[in-house]
C-alpha cells in the first residue's frame, strides 16, 4: 500500500487492467504520446503500444462510436473525453446506442465500454472547461454513472467499470486530481458499483455529497463538531445512477434531517432525485424539510475568479446550510 493522488490511482488502475486483460485498450484525444491533458495516461503508450493506447481525432462522437464498435468485437475499450464539457457530440452514441444494446437485444448483446470524463469547476476554466454533466446522463437506464471522489475508491471502481459487461460513465472531478491523496492498496481489488460510502458517522444531520463538494463538506463537518457540537453524518453516493437508496435512507431515518450539497446547477440536478427519494420514502422520520445546496442557475461557471467563487458553494455557504438544518 502506498499514498497516491486520485490521478495516480486512476492511471495505476488502467495499467493494471491492461496488463491483466489484453482486450482492454484506451482511446481518446492526446491519450498516447502526450499522456492525456491531465497526464492520467502518461507512459501507457510506451508500455502497451499505439494499438492499445490510441490517439484519436478531435471528434467525441467518433471516439465513443469507435469504442462501441470495438466492444462488440471482443474488446473492452476505455474512451477518454478530454473534458466533460465536450461530451455532447457523443451524446447520441452514449444514450441512443451504448446504453440500449443490452435492452434492445433482449440480453443477447453487451457493450462493455468505460467512458472517462473529467468534470467540475476549476478557476480559469470558464464556460467550456468547468461544467458538471452528471444530470444529463442520470436519466438513462442501461448506463451506469459513477463519480468516486477518493483515490482508493476510484481505482477499485474503475476496475469494476472496465469489467462490467455494459457501459459505464466514469466521472473524475478535475479539481481533486492532485488535491486528494490517500493510501491505495497494491493488490487487485474492486469497489462495487452501486454502493454508497459513509465517510463520517453522526446523529444530528445527514449530508450527501460527492466530488470536490464532498471534500469541503467533510472539512466543514469537522469544524461544526468542534465549534457547535453538531455531528453530521456524511454520505458519498459514489454511484449516481443507480443510487444506493438503502444507505442514503438509513442515514436520513437515523438523523431526521437531510441536506444534499452539489456543485452543479441546482435545478434539474442529481440533488433533486436524491431529495425526492428521501422526501417520499423517509417522510415519517424527518424532523425538517429536505434541503439542497448547489450552484445558481446561470449558464456556466464564470471565468472571472470572484464570480467563480460566488458560483461554487464554498465552506461558508455549506456551514450556514448545515447549521440552519441542525437548528430547525
UniProtKB/TrEMBL annotation:
UniProt keyword list: Oxidoreductase, Thiamine pyrophosphate
Domain Transketolase-like pyrimidine-binding: 4-179
Cofactor(s) required for function per UniProt: thiamine diphosphate
Gene3D superfamilies the record matches: 3.40.50.920, 3.40.50.970
Top-rank taxon: Bacteria
InterPro entries, per database record: THDP-binding, Transketo_C/PFOR_II, Transketolase-like_Pyr-bd, Transketolase_C
One Pfam short name: Transket_pyr
Stated name of the protein: Alpha-ketoacid dehydrogenase subunit beta
Organism whose genome encodes this protein: Rubrobacter marinus
